[in-house]
Fold this protein.
Amino acid sequence: MYAMSTFPRGSTLLVVATLAACSSVKQDITDFAPEVGGLNAQLRSPTSAATGAVHVYDFRDGIQVQLSINNLFPGQYVIAFHEGNCRSPNLFSAGPPWAPPGWTKPAGELMPTFLANNDGNQTGYVAYVPGVHTDRPPSVLGKSVVIHAGKSVDQAFPGQPNNRMACGVLEPNQPFSF
């Protein structure tokens, strides 16, 4: 009988101590977890199974672009910023490629090409683009990111096939919430 009467009291104390520890851990995490900065675009394709994400962060005097994409055909691709959106079926609405003022090459050459592996995936692409920012001019905020098949950024026309494979619009990352 004595052992039974102390068991509930001991387990109650254990539960209270565990809950108190959990609430202090949650407080500690929120104190140290930085807010997520930068921009994010979810890549989608209206004509294929290609999906992915682009993350853009301010880095030194420019931006760092990180790409992860799946379900492409194996081969070479170009990633480019565009001035429009991703609403049209052939991604014509993404508009012309964009480059910051003073860029002397074609806008489609702002970032290097990448290869999709034999499974059609690329998860390790990182590029640095100097002179561009996420939160002040010249900014990529609101620009679309388009994945082009091949080595070049070709012009698109309404309703006609082109080399635009996937598209997403850069929006601010949302902070973590606990």
